[in-house]
Specification:
The complex is a heterodimer of chains A (about 260) and B (about 450).
Chain A (H helix, E strand, L loop, with lengths): L1 E7 L10 H12 L4 E7 L7 H4 L2 E4 L4 H10 L2 H12 L4 E4 L1 H6 L2 E3 L6 E2 L6 E4 L8 E9 L4 H9 L4 E8 L2 E4 L6 E5 L9 E2 L1 E3 L2 E4 L5 H4 L1 H16 L11 H13 L10
Parallel strand pairs in A: 1-2, 1-3, 3-4, 4-14, 5-7
Antiparallel strand pairs in A: 5-6, 7-10, 8-9, 8-11, 11-12, 13-14
Chain B lengths: L2 H23 L8 H9 L3 H8 L3 E6 L4 H14 L4 E3 L7 H10 L11 E5 L5 H7 L4 E4 L7 H4 L2 H12 L7 E5 L3 H8 L4 E5 L28 E7 L2 E5 L24 H17 L3 H10 L6 E7 L2 E6 L4 H16 L5 E5 L18 H6 L2 E6 L3 H9 L12 E5 L3 H11 L5 E6 L1 H12 L5
Helix pairs in contact in B: 1-2, 2-5, 3-5, 4-10, 4-11, 6-8, 10-11
The chains are: A alpha/beta (about 260), B alpha/beta (about 450).
Chain lengths: ~260, ~450
């Protein structure tokens, strides 16, 4: 078996260690004997590159880089990308990427930038002097059917942990939130929701990076990508995640969420 | 200064000195910030008044990496030439820290008798300082991604610097790193006297641009920059293929210069301090003599002997810093002179509360050379996880790479010292607050 991991604009959209999500997916495949190649989806790539990939990862960007990306992701590339997400290709998009997948982004400086409109959400930056949303974040994943499928992998309520650091505030339209904020700001610090979920694509402000400390989400992405590709249910062998478990436990304790301590 | 100002200055200084004495005598701390805070409340324009009194002028040093080492080198060059220098040596680089440092050298009525003040200034605080203070020199080292949790983005910071420096008088001299496109561009757009330093040593190019890179786009037109080669992160020899922006002409030939300590980053620090000293009028001969005898600032490639073991502490606060540290450590590992490394990752305010940056570090390179890696710190498991994902197979291979996870720092230090063979060097790679703790344990005393 093999999996091709598409990585959106690795040079432009990697502000907050989001490479960790790519490393995590690739290693968890390879440790199980599944070949995993990384396909960069950047300015130099042809639109047809999108056809190759089985799972897509996108990270955060600074405003200027975000603008460059949004200008590049037009026409055929935009169509291909939209087609993949609409067609159920799984993906995880953190920080800047959801802004890109949304309807538009209004940066602190400069003009409003149109997004792909795959997710019905908008993002606005309240200005360079407005405080950023920064801190450790804990959320309960509630989006259906993701929550149920994660529960099947995990055996309990899926609680994700991460770190958020964003100036922009995101407001959801007709799209399911990824989950409910337990600790932190989430999309906008107002409505208690975090991220969004559409098709098999996860959009979230939670970096950290997300996957290494929430390995059940990584496994869900791999499993879903393989099922999508080979059209059969594939169950993954279990890996030793004791370090991830300890990292989660330490942070849950610090954030007074010790009741969540057994969750991995 | 009018009479009212003078009285209020005297009062502020008196109170600050009393606070410092109390804090120190009660062993409450280092008194590197509080006296400044209190005296500033008594006299809000204290900092500009103190600036005015520095005879030859104030030197501000800004940049993400290298402030402390560069300041210390410059200070040593100046002092070796008989100048009286004040420096905020404790790394207290916010406004209150600057005030505290200058106050420490005033007499009881607030008069300063020093030739130069070298002040390390936090990236984000520079505009605040320049609002009403007039430095003689500003030295800009580099601008990397660091502690974005507090500060936002590189572009925003550079824009704020530009806006803050532009209105300064024309007798201000600005020294900038030509190899950093953001700073090069900043310098090209200033009306004051600007001098650039940088490398012209293609044999020190990296094989590839590392992942942890911030700025490879033209700051002028936004087009992808063409790099002939990269020395470190995004620092290198570059030009924009679309507009006429290119690396600024440097005021020195780096090939003619030696360097302090180890690593390319310390070559930059050497050139920065050296060029500024030369601009002040210090002879090349005197500068070279100080460079040759230079000893590290605490935690910055500082070397110690502990229980008969040789130890080198390499403060690493961000992806660029840690990549360069790994590069330097690997050079030594390859020579067979080091096999044990201790990494201590904290996430307190001075470290940055967001530790995601460790995933932008090429830890794979450290792991690939094997040996023992001990991890500790507030985020010990995050660091351990990063290292686990740096190896090709899931099974820890005891013959190649041995990971030891110790929450307790004292135990981690103890075991790292034990594991490090006598004739080798133990490398300790801590974040800022971790460095202070490590050093306190190793030397048995506090630095500040």
């Amino acid at each position: 078996m093999e999996l091709k991991i598409g990585w959106l604009y690795p040079k432009l959209m990697s502000t907050y260690g989001d490479r960790g999500n790519v490393i995590c997916l690739q290693q968890r495949c390879q440790w199980r004997g599944i070949d995993a190649a990384i396909v960069p989806l950047d300015r130099q790539s042809e639109a047809s590159q999108f056809d190759l990939v089985d799972v897509i990862v996108g990270g955060g960007a600074q405003d200027r880089q975000q603008e460059i990306v949004m200008r590049d992701l037009q026409g055929a590339k935009a169509e291909k990308f939209r087609g993949k997400i609409d067609g159920g290709t799984p993906g995880v998009f953190t920080c800047g990427s959801p802004q890109l997948l949304g309807k538009y982004y209004e940066p602190a400086l400069g003009q409003r930038i149109d997004g792909l409109g795959v997710f019905d959400l908008v993002t606005k930056h309240p200005g360079i002097d407005a405080p950023r949303c920064i801190g450790n974040v804990v959320l309960e994943i509630t989006a259906s059917p993701l929550a149920e499928e994660l529960r099947a992998i995990l055996g309990e309520t899926p609680i994700a942990i991460g770190f958020e650091n964003h100036g922009g505030r995101t407001y959801l339209g007709n799209v399911a939130p990824l989950g409910k904020v337990i600790k932190g700001y989430g999309n906008n610090g107002e409505d208690g929701w975090e991220g969004a979920f559409y098709g098999n694509a996860i959009a979230t402000y939670s970096h950290g990076p997300l996957l290494p400390k929430n390995p059940f989400i990584a496994d869900w992405l791999i499993q879903t990508a393989l099922r999508h590709k080979y059209q059969e249910a594939i169950s993954l062998s279990k890996l030793d995640d004791s370090l991830a478990l300890q990292a989660r436990k330490a942070m849950f304790e610090r954030l007074d969420c010790a009741n969540l301590v057994n969750t991995l | 200064m009018n009479l009212f100002d003078r009285i209020r200055l005297g009062l502020a200084v008196g109170v600050a000195k009393t606070v410092t004495a109390i804090v120190k005598s009660l062993k409450l701390g280092a008194a590197s910030v509080l006296p400044g805070e209190i005296s500033r409340r008594i006299h809000p324009h204290l900092l500009p008044l103190l600036f005015e009194q520095v005879k030859e002028g104030v030197i501000l040093i800004v940049g993400t990496n290298g402030k402390t080492t560069t300041s210390l080198l410059l200070r040593t060059i100046l002092e070796d030439c008989g100048k009286k220098v004040t420096h905020n040596a404790t790394g207290a680089n916010l406004i209150n820290g600057l005030i505290t440092a200058l106050l420490a050298d005033t007499n009881i009525i607030g008069q300063l008798n020093i030739d130069y003040a070298i002040l390390e200034v936090d990236e984000n605080v520079l505009p605040l300082v320049l609002r009403d203070c007039r430095p003689r020199y500003i030295l800009g080292l580099n601008l990397f991604r660091d502690q974005l949790d507090r500060y936002g983005e590189v572009d925003t910071i550079s824009l704020r610097w530009q806006q803050a420096i532009a209105p300064l008088p024309n007798n201000t001299t600005i020294l900038l790193n030509a190899d950093d496109p953001t700073l090069s561009y900043l310098g090209q757009n200033l009306t004051q006297k600007v001098l650039f330093f940088g490398l012209n040593e293609p044999d020190r190019y990296l094989d590839e641009i590392p992942h942890a890179v911030d700025s490879i786009y033209c700051p002028s037109c936004g087009h992808l920059l063409d790099y002939q080669g990269v020395y470190l992160s995004h620092l290198g020899d570059y030009a924009c293929p679309k507009c006429d922006f290119k690396k600024s002409e440097t005021a020195l030939n780096s090939q003619e210069w030696g360097q302090i300590l180890i690593g390319v980053y310390n070559k930059y620090n050497t050139l920065a301090a050296g060029l500024l000293a030369r601009e002040i009028g210090i002879s090349q001969e005197n500068i070279n003599a100080t460079i040759k005898d230079f000893r590290a600032a605490f935690g910055r490639a500082e070397e110690l002997t502990v229980k008969g073991k040789h130890v080198r502490i390499l403060l690493s606060k961000n992806p660029v810093g840690m990549n360069e540290t790994i590069r330097a450590v690997n050079d030594i590992k390859i020579q067979g002179k080091s096999s044990t490394t201790l990494i201590v990752l904290n996430d307190r305010i001075p470290d940055g509360t967001d530790v995601s940056w460790i995933w932008d570090v090429d830890t794979e390179k450290l792991v690939s050379l094997g040996g023992t890696i001990v991890v500790s710190g507030d985020r010990v498991y995050d660091m351990a996880l990063r290292l686990k994902y740096s190896q090709e197979t899931l099974e820890m291979n005891p013959n190649s790479f041995n990971l030891i996870v110790k929450e307790n720092l004292q135990e981690a230090i103890k075991i790292a010292l034990e594991k490090s063979p006598k004739e080798e060097t133990l490398h300790i790679i801590p974040t800022y607050s971790a460095m202070l703790e490590v050093r306190k344990t190793l030397t048995g005393r506090e630095i500040l």
